[in-house]
Amino acid sequence: MRLSVILITHNEAARLRAVLEAVAWADEIVVVDSGSTDGTPDIARAFTDKVLVTADWPGFGVQKNRALDLATGDWVLSLDADERVTPALAQEIRATLAEPRADVYALPRLSYFLGRPMRHGGWWPDEVPRLFRRGRARFSDDLVHERLVFDGRAISLREPLLHDTMPTLDDALTKMDRYARAGALRKHQQGGRASVASAFAHGLWTFLRCYVFKAGFLDGPEGFVLAVTNAQGSYYRYLRLWLLGREPRSPQRQP
Hints:
The chain is an alpha/beta fold. The protein has two domains: about 5-165, Spore Coat Polysaccharide Biosynthesis Protein SpsA, Chain A (Alpha-Beta Complex); about 170-245, no CATH class. The chain has seven helices and twelve strands.
């Protein structure tokens, strides 16, 4: 069974090498880059000759499907540039593909925030379908928060996929703002509406769910900062949605 690893990238030179070294055992690596300016494609070419640089950014779902369309393996493992396969997970994947029992497998993802593994706040276990038989699944065309679309159910693996999502506060704030913009635009295109009051309510509920009801307080100071950051993201997403709804705007324009 041949395995293709697919990634999409943009200015990931600082961590891409470690990500690719961890999956160098795969039969094929496919990287689709959206116009990086920091040498990311050159790093990728040291591991694979299948590197496509695109001039546009159509969103996460479409870009991942572009990478998927370039894959030729029997199986596909989709990774993000801030995720790393451990040796134990690599061994489990190889053993699974030697005797597959399903077309899709979910990987438990252990996410790090400000350098700390987050085991509460709704972040663990975060099972993400990422390993699948080629031709049996594709990504949704969502601009952000894309999902793998497939029939049936996914079987969960045991070993975690490491996810260094926001190593610094600047990373957290930048990602929060980017996701808030994209999420507001998607909801606006779907006919969604919001108000200042609803934006506040969503932000407050997000904090309470993450920090209190999902026990984020057990993750120490980082758990509190994460809950506040998530609440900010929710608040700004609906605030931007409110602003988008105040006057007609082009679907491509972000607030």
